Amino acid sequence: MTGMDITPELAQRVLRGGPDAIAVVRGIYQTQIQKLDDIETKARQIQEAAEMLPLRWIPVSERRPEVGQEILCFFEGEMYLGRYVDWPNWNDCTHWMPLPEPPTCP
Fold first, then answer.
1. pTM higher than 0.85, yes or no?
2. Quick check: is 42 in a domain?
3. Which domain holds residue 36?
4. Residue 91 carries which DSSP code?
5. Does 72 fall in a domain?
6. How far is residue 52's CA from residue 46's CA, in Å, rounded to a whole number?
7. Confidence (pLDDT) at 1
8. In terms of domains, do 34 and 67 share one?
9. Cα–Cα distance list, 49 to 37, 43, 45, 58, 65 (Å)
10. 8 Å CB contact between 23 and 41
11. Is 1 contained in some domain?
12. Given this model, what pLDDT does residue 91 score?
């Protein structure tokens, strides 16, 4: 028994403790797990879509780039292009953004 939503009737069946009570609870549990899986899938899809949005300045306080990632960094009113390394003065950089993928050549 799968694909069950919690209804008052189902709750009554479980509370009465009939022979199918365990199957009812199992069905409800499986339905809830499937709903959580669906939410996780949607969250991943949203994250992937967000990563494809136009580039934006990312505050260092929000997150740092991956080590070795090519970035544009805003530092003391200037922009610098380079590859991120975890260096002690990184906190002097206030914002950064990843570089777009290079164009594909035919």
1. no
2. yes
3. 8-51
4. G
5. yes
6. 10
7. 47
8. no
9. 18, 10, 6, 17, 18
10. no
11. no
12. 65
